[in-house]
Structures are given as C-alpha cells and as structure tokens.
C-alpha cells in the first residue's frame, strides 16, 4: 500500500485487539503514527511490540472523561498534533432483549460505545480544527437493520450513525470530515465470545459465513482498509457517510442452508 497516511497522527480507541488492532497495523503501514487507547494491559503490551516505539499506547477507559482527556493530551504532547480520531472501542454485551436488560447493562454499553465519542470529540476538537483532520466511528450494520437479542447494543450503533451525520454537519465548516464504517460480522475476540454465548454455538461459524453474500466472515483487515481510505485525502470530499464493510450482508432476502 502506498503511504496514504504519511506523517498523520491517529488517535485510535480499542486498537489493542480485533478490528482496532488491524486498523493500527494498516495505519502504520500507510505511514501514520498511532496512539492506541484501550482498557486491556496485556493486549496493549503486545500491540506496542508489534507497532514499535515510535507509536504509543495508553491504558484507560473510554467511558471515563479524565482517562480520555489525559490520553489525548499525552498524544498531543508526544506528537504535537492529531489528524484523525478513530472511535473504535466498543462492547456488544448484553445479548438480551430490551425488557431483560438491566439499568447497569444499558448504561455501560451506552457509556462505552457512545459517550466515549462525546469525550474524544470534546478533548480533540481544537487539535482537529488545526489539522483539518477527520473522525471515523466504528458503527455496525446492526445500527441500520437491527438484530435480535441485542437491543441496547443496536441502539448505540443506530445512535452512532445519526451522530456521525450530525457531527459531519457541525464540523464541516472547519473542514473536519466525520464518517463511520459499518461491518456486519468480523472474526475478533468480541465475536468469538459472542459466539460462545449463543445457544447454537457449534453452528455459528457456518452461519457467520452465510450471512455475507460474498461468502465468508472476514477478519478485521477488510475494515482497516476502508478506514485507511476514510482517514486519507483519497476521501477528501466524503463526509457523513456510513460505509458498509459488510460483504453485502444487508442486501435483500436470501435462502440460507440453516
Ligand atoms: N466483531 C464484529 O463482528 C463487529 C461487527 C460490527 C461492529 N463491530 C464494532 O467494532 C468495534 C471493535 O470490535 P471488536 O470486535 O474488534 O472488539 P474486541 O472486543 O475484539 O476489541 C475491543 C477493543 O476495545 C477495547 N475496549 C473495550 N472497552 C473499552 C473501554 N471501556 N475503554 C477502552 N477500551 C475498551 C478493548 O481493550 C479492545 O482493544 C466495536 O465498536 C464493535 O461494536 C464489531
């Protein structure tokens, strides 16, 4: 890949594993320096080993304002600028319909998946105005089409889609673009955990392949390539876009073997 992101500084949440880690590696390959914030010390350690010391990792919780503030300040101190904020950290649990969801479960998934975007935006907006940078939100196809047994999670992703468009409007005067990527399913630690929670766990792999008309459930590299595009000047006239990276999962009625 050419150096589409040469010298860009990217603040990436949830970049220590899964989709985020694939993004971190592709951002590096494309010439960027990456600040990875995540709440898991062990995977962060692996992450910095793989990325190298010119990048940096910060342990913290994206749903805690002061953690996000200090992570962004650390990035600004180290690199002097931020060009891209990628809000990727997210949780999918609980696997429940709405009436079974507890107040605490509801609050947690909204804080991690949604309030975190308020915090990263609040603390980076001046830097983004200076760099005329961009924001990428990791949404999900279920934010558009819904999903059974995941009421709270899907509500956060639907909210991210609308929020992405409103942010795109608010920040366009500053030449800050705001877009989202919407994968269907992607093999990551999160999806593997989710699979184990399902009552038909042994059939999940086949089901995951079949929901994608292109024939397979991908790894995070497919999402990362889309994010490199959205972070780069190649997408300089694209804002407010919720980009499906879904192998066509949302398209039409289909017969599946299950
Ligand atoms: N895997 C899928 O099938 C899939 C599909 C559509 C959308 N997504 C979305 O992609 C994003 C990444 O998912 P994944 O499957 O790679 O997840 P994952 O569980 O494999 O990795 C999640 C990452 O986020 C971090 N994280 C979680 N909670 C955090 C918190 N409170 N503070 C800081 N960091 C936190 C973890 O440390 C980890 O680095 C999520 O927003 C998810 O909703 C995933």
Verbal overview:
The protein is α/β, with parallel strands linked by helices. It has one domain (9-243): Rossmann fold (3-Layer(aba) Sandwich). It has 9 helices and 7 strands, in the order βαβαβαβαβααβαααβ. α3 packs parallel to α4. The longest helix is centred in the middle third of the chain and has 29 residues, at 103-131. The chain is globular and about 50 Å long. The model has no long low-confidence stretch (mean pLDDT 96). Bound molecules: nicotinamide-adenine-dinucleotide. Nicotinamide-adenine-dinucleotide (NAD) is lined by residues 13-14, 16-20, 38-40, 43, 61-63, 88-92, 112, 138, 140, 183, 185-186, 188-191.
Question: What's the short version?
Answer:
This protein has 258 residues and is of the alpha/beta class. The protein contains nine helices and seven strands; from the N terminus they run E-H-E-H-E-H-E-H-E-H-H-E-H-H-H-E.
């Amino acid at each position: 890949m050419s150096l589409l992101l040469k010298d860009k500084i990217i603040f990436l949440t949830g970049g220590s594993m899964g989709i985020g880690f694939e993004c971190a590696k592709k951002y590096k390959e494309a010439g960027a320096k990456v600040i990875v914030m995540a709440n898991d010390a062990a995977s962060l350690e692996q992450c910095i080993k793989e990325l190298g010391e010119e990048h940096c990792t910060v342990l913290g919780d994206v749903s805690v304002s002061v953690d996000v503030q200090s992570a962004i300040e650390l990035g600004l101190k180290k690199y002097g600028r931020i060009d891209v904020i990628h809000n990727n950290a997210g949780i999918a649990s609980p696997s429940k319909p709405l009436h079974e969801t507890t107040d605490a479960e509801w609050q947690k998934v909204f804080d991690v998946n949604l309030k975190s975007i308020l915090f990263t935006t609040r603390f980076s907006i001046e830097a983004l105005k200076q760099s005329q940078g961009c924001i990428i939100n990791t949404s999900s196809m279920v934010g558009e089409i819904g999903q059974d047994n995941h009421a709270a999670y899907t509500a956060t992703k639907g909210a991210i889609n609308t929020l992405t468009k409103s942010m795109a409007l608010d920040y366009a005067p500053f030449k800050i673009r705001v877009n989202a990527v919407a994968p269907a399913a992607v093999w990551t630690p999160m999806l593997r955990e989710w699979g184990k929670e399902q009552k038909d766990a042994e059939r999940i792999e086949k089901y995951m392949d079949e929901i994608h008309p292109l024939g397979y459930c991908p790894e995070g590299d497919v999402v990362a390539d889309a994010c490199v595009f959205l972070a780069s000047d190649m997408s300089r006239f694209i804002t407010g876009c919720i980009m499906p990276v879904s192998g066509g999962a949302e398209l039409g009625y289909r017969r599946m073997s299950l």
